[in-house]
Amino acid sequence: MFSYKANFKNYIEIGRKIKEIVNSFDPNAKLYIFGSAVKGKNVASSDIDILIITEKIELKYEIMVKVFKSIDEPIELHIITREIFDKWYRRFIPIEELVEI
Question: Which parts of the sequence belong to the Polymerase nucleotidyl transferase domain (predicted)?
């Protein structure tokens, strides 16, 4: 039986599995977890927010397909460049709420 509480307690492990996949496309990519999983405010409808910063943005959809085929967890992928992170995401996600994997 799927347990959201147990699943969210293992968000670091899930992040590590995703990082392995992402590294096969871009070894220099940065991966962070943020949102309700990190804050401990997840509910039954929550997912695990994964932020992937890569300069190989042209591989975004290939990365997404590989991750979603490999990871059977409620996740949301945010695949962006460093420039987009600095211009947009940084405004809304406090640095202290980003857990680097």
Answer: 16-99
- Run of H or E including 61: helix 60-70
Number of separate domains in the chain: 1
Place of tokens 């994964």: 50
Q: Are 13 and 78 in contact (CB under 8 A)?
A: no
CATH number of the domain residue 46 falls in: 3.30.460.10
Count other C-beta atoms under 10 Å from residue 49's C-beta: 20
- Hey, what amino acid is at 100? E
40 sits in the region (left: phi over 0; alpha: psi -120 to 50; else beta) called left
Does 2 score more than 90 pLDDT?
Answer: no
Which tens digit of pLDDT belongs to each residue from 39-56? 877 777 778 999 999 999
| H/E stretch holding 4 | helix 4-9
pLDDT given at position 8: 55
